[in-house]
Amino acid sequence: MKNLLFINVLILLFASCNNNNKNEIKKETNTEKEEIDTYEERVSDIEKYTKLIYDDSLNFNKEYAKNLVKAYDRFIKHDSYYNVSKEYMFKAGEICKALNRPQDAIMYFNMLLERDPNDKYAPPALFYKAMIIGDVFHEDALAKATYQEFIQKYPDHPLVESAKQSIELQGKSMEEIIDGFKKKEKNV
Fold first, then answer.
1. Other C-beta atoms within 10 Å of 52: how many?
2. How far apart are CA 111 and CA 11, in angstroms?
3. Which residues contact 164 (CB under 8 A, 6 or more apart)?
4. Contact indicator for 172, 180 with CB cutoff of 8 Å
5. What is the pLDDT of residue 107?
6. At 165, which helix (H) or strand (E)?
7. What distance in Å separates the CA atoms of residue 181 and residue 42, rounded to the nearest whole number?
8. Is the pLDDT of residue 1 over 70?
């Protein structure tokens, strides 16, 4: 009986020490994270992953892209008052689009559009948003309305003609599109 009691005490003592070590490790990890999460570190992360992605422009490295989006996100959350954050919102949206994360892409594009609809990145952000709504989510009416909004807000933008074509083609099957081109070709 004494042996059983002694074994139980040892097990409890060991478990207690083990949990204390885990808590100390967690505290150290959290402290380290807080210490390195400065403006300079966030900018450095963005620069590092941007360089890694563009060093090998022939291959799209998804891990680097995911890490770059995380770096953009950290910057936007902590330093959104800097003008460069608008560019980062747009780039994060583009990368999410390439990573087949359409909801995240639209989220970043919306962030930019809400923050500054007159920014140089706002027109392509709205255009890409319409593209995702139509091509990925197949919400034809909403995609047409978003393209129309793009045309109204940015009538002189070079993507206006593409937006008009997209409105015309939205919701059509590939066969219908090909037939339409054949008819146009015959009329010329």
1. 15
2. 53
3. 147, 151
4. yes
5. 98
6. helix 160-169
7. 49
8. no
